[in-house]
Amino acid sequence: MRADSGMFVRYYAVFFRAEPDTGKLIPTETGIDGLYPNPANPSTTLHYSLSQPSHIKIVLYNILGRQVRTLYNGNKQAGQWTVHWDGTNSKGLSVSSGVYFLKMIVQEESGKIRHIHKQKIMFQK
């Protein structure tokens, strides 16, 4: 589909419910909605949904399972969110081309892990 500006608009299969008090649309499920572009060159954006307020940790790992960078670690309200990766590690250095993995850990306020989602990224320079 095309928006009026001529830019392409990307849609994901996300279902919503309306909050009774505010009418705000809230996703019915928590998860990764997509990663675009993938293969990433030189950056990519992760789209994800939360069905309730949660503590989120999104970590990037290399093919050997070593942590490359924490992209987000904090609290988010229910809704749709994005996090951007610019192709750098935790020291701000550009990573090499290859396969990387995103892991999104979703915790309740009590600290109990509710969901763990994973997404593979192909990074090309």
Structural account:
There is one protein chain. By secondary structure, the protein is mainly β. Helices cover 0% and strands 53% of the residues. It is built from no helices and 9 strands. The strands form 3 sheets. A 4-stranded antiparallel beta sheet has the order 6-5-8-9, with no helix packed on it. It is elongated. Mean pLDDT is 88; it is low at 1-11.
Helices and strands, in order, run as: EEEEEEEEE
Order of neighbouring strands in the sheet with most strands: 6-5-8-9
- Share of residues in strands: over 45%
> Averaged pLDDT, please?
88
Number of DSSP E strands = 9
Coarse structural class: mainly beta
Specify the overall morphology: elongated
- Largest sheet report: 4 strands, antiparallel
In whole angstroms, the N-to-C terminal distance is: 28 Å
Radius of gyration: 16 Å
> Regions with pLDDT < 50 over 5+ consecutive residues?
1-11
Q: How many helix segments?
A: 0
- Helical content band: under 10%
